[in-house]
Specification:
14 strands; 430 residues; four-stranded antiparallel beta sheet; alpha+beta; five-stranded antiparallel beta sheet; Alpha-Beta Plaits; globular
């Protein structure tokens, strides 16, 4: 394994070419980095900031901002994306000149490359989360049922206080496209895994040595709205592509003294909504009883719907107690037809992340990406079994709710769209 340098890198002034813009952008992560290495859930032992990863993020956010330029034509959008951000060279094609491509160099600060921290410790086989990590966002880091039987189960590390620089060079004709992608990535994205739940949240510190400041806590929404108007194309986006818009639905939460508090407030809001219990202290959501009913372990009068699929898939249900299903039951989105395999993953359209503002206080952001929704009309329940090569399909189910069904789920307050109900739950937070 190659070693990290022990001294700061030599200051280099990028060479400016004709019609080529070069910037050096400095960043820090205001929340710990989750994963980012070759081993799932683990930080990379060499570097957690790679140019290839950053390029992938910027391509996504370019589509989210600029994909409306193509009147819904996905093929034209991909063509333009490859022109701007590059593509794999194929034999027989004319090589692309260096000055016509976007060059990205990422370098972690060797003196501030981050500190490894544990998100939790185990006590009597139960996890206790520490270091300001919200448990509901970091549940995949918990040891599984079998690992908890071990005396010292492995718990992955997180990495906090990471600083890095990004040197990006691009043809001047692509300035607007690059500016849009960078702004959206810095504002709504991050590094590593689970960035949509606030891990690896970015803060831009400086551009070419000139300090950058965020707005005050009370100017954040205005600043985001004005930036959306500047960077987002208002045309027609291709179907099923997540994107931004000038009037996108977002909420800015009350100011707190630091980003971790703002982050925990957001995740607590999500947890309280998704795990809401009524006056009898029992869950008001129908999924668990629906599964038991479908498997014949519960009365068939219960609502057989799975509305929380709207937050993203898969969802794994694990049952305990008498008459519980033997194996985990997984909810996924159905393939194009019942003969095709179900879709493994559908990223949540909900983004939750904190900001550190210029008055040294923090706020949280909740935002719903547009154009990206689980097909709630076509879901599938699968039984997971280690001994089986393929999962067993149990039932084809739905997550859509009628108005009367939504009225019977107290926290929805009659709203049939679960994501909209969650965003409305923030009313009055400012």
């Amino acid at each position: 394994m190659r070693k990290q340098p022990v001294s700061p890198p030599q200051t280099i002034t990028p060479k400016q070419l004709d019609n080529v813009v070069t910037q050096v952008r400095e960043y820090r992560l205001i929340t710990p980095l989750y994963g980012g290495g070759v081993i799932p859930n683990e930080a990379d032992p060499v570097t957690v900031v790679r140019a290839t990863e950053v390029r992938g993020h910027l391509r996504f956010w370019w589509r989210a901002c600029r994909g409306g330029m193509f009147d819904g034509n996905a093929e034209e959008m991909w063509k333009k994306e490859n022109e701007i951000w590059g593509k794999a060279h194929k034999k027989g094609e004319e090589p692309t000149l260096l000055k016509e491509t976007i060059q990205i160099v990422a370098a972690i600060d060797p003196l501030r490359q981050g500190k490894l921290i544990k998100p939790l410790f185990m006590q009597k086989r139960q996890p206790t989360f520490i270091n300001g990590i919200p448990a509901y966002a970091a549940f995949p880091l918990q040891p599984d049922k079998e690992a908890r039987k071990e005396p010292n189960p492995h718990i992955p590390d997180l990495l906090k206080d990471v600083y890095f620089t990004l040197t990006i060079s691009y043809p001047q004709i692509h300035s607007k496209d690059v500016a849009a992608a960078l702004w959206a990535w810095e504002t709504f994205g991050g590094l590593g895994a689970r960035t949509r739940r606030g891990f690896g949240a970015l803060q831009l510190l400086a551009i070419d040595g000139k300090s950058c400041e965020m707005p005050s806590v009370y100017d954040m929404e205005r600043w985001i709205r004005e930036s959306l108007s500047l960077h987002v194309d208002s045309g027609i986006f291709p179907d099923n592509f997540p994107h931004l818009s000038e009037d996108i639905q977002l909420v800015i939460t009350n100011p707190t003294k630091d980003p971790l508090l703002a982050w925990n407030g957001l995740i607590d809001s999500l947890r309280n909504f998704r795990q809401y219990r009524g006056a009898m202290r029992r869950t008001i959501w129908p999924e668990a009883k629906a599964i038991r009913s479908l498997l014949g372990n519960e009365a068939q009068s219960h609502l057989r719907k799975f509305p929380r699929a709207a937050f993203g898939l898969p969802i794994i249900f694990h049952f305990t107690g008498a008459n519980a299903p033997i194996d985990n039951i997984t909810l996924k989105e159905q393939g194009e037809n019942k003969k095709e395999e179900s879709k493994e993953r559908f990223a949540s359209p909900l983004i939750l992340r904190p900001f550190l503002c210029n008055d040294n206080r923090a706020v949280g952001l909740a935002l719903l990406l547009e154009g990206s929704r689980v097909d709630l009309g076509h879901l599938v329940l699968e039984e997971q079994e280690k001994q089986r090569e393929q999962n067993k399909i149990l039932h084809y189910v739905q997550g859509t709710l009628t108005k009367p069904e939504a009225q019977n789920i107290e926290i929805l307050k009659g709203e049939t769209d679960v994501l909209q109900a969650f965003m409305q739950s923030f009313k009055g937070v400012r």
